[in-house]
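Sample intake sheet
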Amino acid sequence: MNEIIHRMLGEEFELTYEEDDLLDGSTYSINVFNGGANTNVVPDQCFVNIDIRTVPSQDHNQIIDQIDQIIQSTKGTYPDLNAEIRILNDQTPVKTSSEDLLLNWYKTPLNPHVVQQHWGE
């Protein structure tokens, strides 16, 4: 697993996208890593959760294929490696119109008079 993570954090894995005017770009992070029972025992298995936040221009299947290619490539070095990809949550990015009233209200600096009128001092 160390090899796979090293490859993902290096230049071998890159999220390609067209930058979104509101969402900017795509991100990913390795958030959960479970394995082993003690500090002096090499784990026989581990589980990793990777959170990937995509933008509308990205194809989720391409990202999965890219990760799978890294796994397959790693199996060349470690033939006994047993790794699989499980999708825990696959949601398409939500795009809000730049003309949305609530979004524009959020982007507008708060007027102190309005703040006092609605929320008091």
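Comment: The beta strands are 27-35, 46-53. The chain has a mean pLDDT of 85.
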